[in-house]
Amino acid sequence: MNQCKDIEKHLPLYDEGILSDREQKAVEEHLAVCADCRRELSFLRKTVQILGGLSPLEEPAWFQQKMMARVRAEGKPESFFKKYLAFLRRSLPVQIMAGLVLAVLSVYVYRAGDEEAGRIVPQVARPALEMPEKKSAKQDMEAASGTLSRPAPSGREISPPARSAPSKSQPTAEGKIGDISEKNLDKRKNELPREPMEAPLAKKDSVAETMRPLTQNLPSAPQPIAESGEKIEERKFSGMAKSRLDKPPASPSASVAQSAASSQAYLFLQVPDAQNAAREVEKILAENNAENVLQHSEKGFVRFTASLPGATWPAILSELRKKGAIREMIPPAADRKQNLAIVIEISAQP
Amino acid sequence: MPEMSKRMVEKKTPAADTDLEYVVLCQKGDTEAFAPLLKRHSGKMLNIAYRMLADYDEACDVTQEAFLAAFRAIGSFKAESAFSTWLYRIVVNSVRNRLKQRQSRKQHESASFDETAECPGGCTSCLTRTDEGNPQQEMERREREQAVRVCIKALERDYREVVILRDIQGLSYEEIQAILNIPDGTVKSRLSRARLSLKDCLKKIIGEL
Asked: CA nearest A19 in B: which residue?
């Protein structure tokens, strides 16, 4: 019986001819004497026969056509729409939400960018709409006289000319310098904080503009002589400055000539210590009966504007020569009986 | 005995791989060259799938998936084995995946098998080539086929695969090794056990064979 068990393991592959010679011989010898194992082999052969005789399944009629259709669809190169515009096939709510998010983001970025630009570039020139409006000559005169009678304004309100090179925004600043009327003062105050870095004026432009109100009512004077020999250029002035001049000067020197012809004097003094010199100049002016003395000072620079009798000018000049080097000067008219509008600028030596 | 020897000779005869020329065309982008390959192998692939799944619709579905997978991957076919072997490996793997999905769905396989035993895929009798001669013989044939399906179903998957590929589809041992990626000894031992199990099962159902 044990032998039958051992032989039975080999029976399924006996007919395959893949058993070893020894196994094959052992099976043959056993089958010759064992009827049960012969019957089992018969069952196995029948089983294999049944399996091999199973009816093959037929594929459905549509099978190959459908398969080839799928294969063709698979093999077709991706269309432009499928490749690049596939996002359009996504659901509509997602697209709407994406659009909304984009719109909100755009507005936010636009606004943030505007504010940021305002902070970073405050000195950007304002458009002509913000320029002071034109006023009549009478209003200008009142404003000019008010400049002299007012107490000394703060440095921000009457911005002194910086000794540094003029910036690109100079033309806009120039337009605002001469406009210091009471009416526009508040407006200017509102504007100034937004323009903390208001571009400084060139010194000569500032001088001409500052002297203009002082000399409006003064008689004509001879042509000025700049000691340094430099030409003082006329810059364009907008608003009040423009209206003040009936006929703008044809040449840059004409403006200076006009202001100098009305008994005004200008002097630029360079000293070792500007603040000490300023105190002494103030003292000198007081001693010489100067009126309407306005002083504006900032680091290393002081400017005096005053009105004083023309006869005192030579004495003041000689005193000033002792204090430092006179770099520029526009002397007053010869008539010493008239009052004289003077501008003295004191700068520390570099 | 002589009948079985004849069958074995037929099985061992290696088929010339005439598929290669079409495979090369497909690899060059000729989609239509896939049609002859499909025509040659779809029947056998469907039969393998059906014998393993015992469901005609599922077998059709799996066969289509296997063909599409083969078409997508045809560029990677390097002719290290016959194209048919490569295709059968794909369909066997597809069947395995489907069986796993079936298990994950906790579908009662035996119930499904019982249904399909009667009429798998809607109408098995319409889909199998039948001998419409003697009604008595036809009835006996159907009974035998049903018994065989039940017994094949009762086999473990590994044994089932081997017996289907060898005894039903008539593939050679080398092909079975390549398809299932198992050694020769494993193929033989599995086949031996599968045949013994089937013999015992059929004896119980049919009686004396």
From this structure: B188
